[in-house]
Batch of 2 targets.
Target 1
Amino acid sequence: MKTHQGHIVISGGKLLDGTGRQPVTLGAVHIADGRITYAGPADRAPAAQPTAQKIDAHGGTIMPGLVEAHFHPTYFNVAALEDLDIKYPVEYVTLLAAANAKLALECGYTAARSGGSLFNIDVWLKKAIENDITPGPRLAASGREICGVGGLMDWNPDFRKLGMEGLVLLINGPDEARAAVRKLVKDGVEWVKTYPTGDAAAPDTNDHHTLCMTFEEMHAVVATAHNHGLKVTGHCRANAGIKNALRAGYDTLEHGTFMDDEALELLLARDVPVVPALQFEYASIVHGPEFGMGLRVIDGHKETLEGGAESARRILRAGGRLGMGGDYGFAWTPHGTYAKELTFFVKHVGLTPLEVLTCATKTGAEIMGRGDEFGTLEAGKLADVLVVDGDVLADIEILENRSRFLAVMQGGIIKAGTLTGK
């Protein structure tokens, strides 16, 4: 991905550097050749180069670009899970994924980790973004997901003669688990996404249903993935499944919904980050009836929301790490509304705006394994910067409004925002 050549000075706004430190009331960021050379109080900043491009933050906020830690670029705002694998051909899904990536960047998300992708499209989408063929977040690809036969993502009965090859790799036993990972290795993924537990969206494999994958299968996935330098994550809601994943060596957990004290201790001992993805549950409760969700499913989402919120609070208060991201790409959580996750964690979960934004920048970059490159505004890091018209700590909901973005920068290049092209 190209970076800006030359000097840029951003000033005139509150500086939120993403580290978790309190903001600087009047800050400045200096950029040279796509990297930050200074971020701090404006009155302590070095003299600007005479030829530097000047960006006025208009009394708003200067902050790191956001990181979507659970991104589904190939989900296309479907109204039902089963539409994902059979509705559109790969050619059209590829175009939809490119459009979703562009939209995510316009929403202030300069980086994203895929949480699963149809047809391994995210692998090629990443290459296209890095080669400046199409705009989008800096991407970590995960390709097709792995699930046990009869598990959460295996919903087509055999008599229909429909496979799931575009969406997931179905396994029976450790040998098939190893084979599935090796297929993904050949395809060029960085993350292996699995389904150890159930979900409220599927009553036959509900949130407390653990054996969508056995421990032996999970351990085989991790051992094979780690041997090839890949990381492993999993859709983990059930308490026993969470503990299985942590004991198997998972690198992150998606959701981490129902956790007892033992699960929390295992999590903290290995410092494993969790991406709760809770706004999806709230939206499912509010809008589910419009899309034919029955009372049993809605009640499951309510239980999931309550348990997930409590686990998220406990994790953060105990010194653990949370990433911000969610299952956007369903009809009730459409692409382009990613920042609703941040608002939800402030207004409904009870985290402070500073805590949430640290999770959405610094921790997100750490989850991607690129915390030394971006996620905070510090000297030496890539100039992935979001300049917002307004005080996001006073009103985090501003981040849901793209028209309030003055500049969305990647490597010092303005990719979106009202200053684009100026």
Target 2
Amino acid sequence: MPSSKPKQRDINPFPHSDSNKRYYTFDYYLKKKYGEKCAKITLDAGFTCPNIDGQKSRGGCIYCSARGSGDFAQSAYLSLREQYDIQVKKIRQKWNVTRFLPYLQAHTNTYASLDTLQAVYSAALALPGSVGLHIATRADCLPGATVEYIAELAEKTDVTVELGLQSAKDETARLINRAHSYEDFLEGYYALRNASSRIRVAVHLINGLPGETEEDMLNTVKEIAKIHPNECKIHLLHVLKGTVLAEWYKAERYIPMEQEAYVRTVVKQLTLLPEDIVIGRLTGDGSEADLLAPLWSKKKTIVLNEIDKMLYCQNLWQGKCAK
């Protein structure tokens, strides 16, 4: 006889889900918005960063690879169309997808002249199957003319600006050579918010930064809950070859988070975030060739399953403890 035990998805108390996930996944958001699965296509438009070229600092953040977080994009020596076609071909080997979101991920994608930005953004939006644009940048690289242009684009298509915050603790920002404060972040965040309600804003956070306690990581999420972005991405700090962090790790100046601590922290963070904030991701990918630690992060599916398991076993969900 068939089991009468209900499935987790059937007794899931979280409203923004069609599965066992007790948080608002990006995949669910896309299916609700477009009626079908969409795929993000990472692109490298060849930008740099003020934290690399000397305007703010040199060397970048202590964890940043030479690709500026664009390790999974194709080479910037290829045109955007060539990069896009390669990525789309790979994705279609796994899924039957017809809609795509070009994602300008590498380095700081608002750090250029307005003419350059207009050319790059227009080219990305003209790619076949494109339904919008995601722009990864720093909150201190949003001059008025750029924000105005993004607001104009948002009237015509779906635009998400992804802001790297990492931590709301200024002491941590100084330690990782972030070269901007939380106040600087808020200034850029509200510049976007005030320019147009149609601009989606996503905020990136990193768990496991040097010197941070679980309380620090939870406090950052509490601050994010106050400003209520459209989306939040939670990453695990990876130690990658060729970075300052790698030297700290080798010298035992930095100890990565253990999987159990990471899962526990993420679950607590989810309960603090309002239920309507889309969760863009709950862990990150480190290039396998360059990853030094933590090696457990390679088993991404296991990490996500452990998060799901803890939420279920403790009867928790996104927003349960949000104020």
